[in-house]
Write a structure and sequence with these properties.
This protein is mostly helical and about 210 residues long. It contains six helices and seven strands. Strands 5-6-7 form a three-stranded antiparallel sheet. Helix 1 runs antiparallel to helix 2 and helix 5 runs antiparallel to helix 6. The longest helix is centred in the C-terminal third of the chain and has 23 residues.
Length: about 210
């Protein structure tokens, strides 16, 4: 996902992906017994983690924010639980998801960010981002909000064209906007469907509470 064009900033999403690069490199080196400076990589990974927690978290918003010098939200951070940066039931993540629910979600469709709070340097208005809407479904499912996740997923499916394809965005009248068809949207759709299916199966398999 691209960063916004509002000037150079220390974006939380970029730091998240830096953490992912270190974390996955450590995992691969360890799993496959490859020569690597795992101690140094681990130190750097943990430093990035602390930086995100210390500077990417807003006590005022009770949420992770777009970059270290703002209070604006960014739906790209819906990737946090999928990347295993935080557990989907971590209180900091649940609070962030609640904040996004209130500010970036419109009838289950998700805006990447609030353009007034985070100017992108472009004229006009943005539609909701289909990639983010499917990430939202996945995050809801992993959090255990299955009814809400199922509604959002089924709602999103109604915006596909006659052969089931999606563009990059959905406009205010339900029209497809931006790149079409967009591969990232469809990859997110598949991931959301898998997550929702897994969590529904898990819920059905759990014994009822006495």
């Amino acid at each position: 996902m691209r960063e916004t064009r509002g000037g150079r900033q220390e974006f939380t999403y970029s730091r998240l992906m830096t953490w992912v690069a270190f974390d996955r490199s450590i995992r691969m080196a360890t799993a496959h017994a490859r020569p690597a400076d795992v101690v140094r990589w681990t130190t750097e990974r943990d430093a990035v983690f602390r930086q995100i927690i210390d500077r990417g978290w807003s006590e005022k918003r009770r949420a992770f924010v777009q970059h270290f010098a703002t209070e604006a939200l960014d739906a790209s951070l819906l990737l946090m639980p999928r990347m295993r940066f935080l557990s989907p039931t971590d209180p900091m993540w649940l609070s962030t998801l609640d904040a996004m629910d209130k500010e970036l979600v419109s009838d289950s469709l998700v805006y990447r960010c609030d353009p007034e709070a985070s100017p992108d340097g472009l004229r006009g208005t943005e539609g909701t981002f289909n990639l983010c809407s499917f990430l939202y479904v996945e995050a809801l499912a992993r959090t255990g909000r299955l009814q809400q996740a199922r509604y959002a997923f089924e709602k999103m499916l109604t915006y596909a064209n006659h052969v089931g394809l999606f563009a990059e965005e959905i406009g205010p009248s339900g029209e497809q906007l931006g790149n079409f068809p967009q591969a990232f949207t469809h990859l997110a759709l598949i991931a959301a469907a898998i997550a929702l299916d897994e969590e529904l199966d898990r819920a059905e398999a759990e014994p009822p509470l006495d």
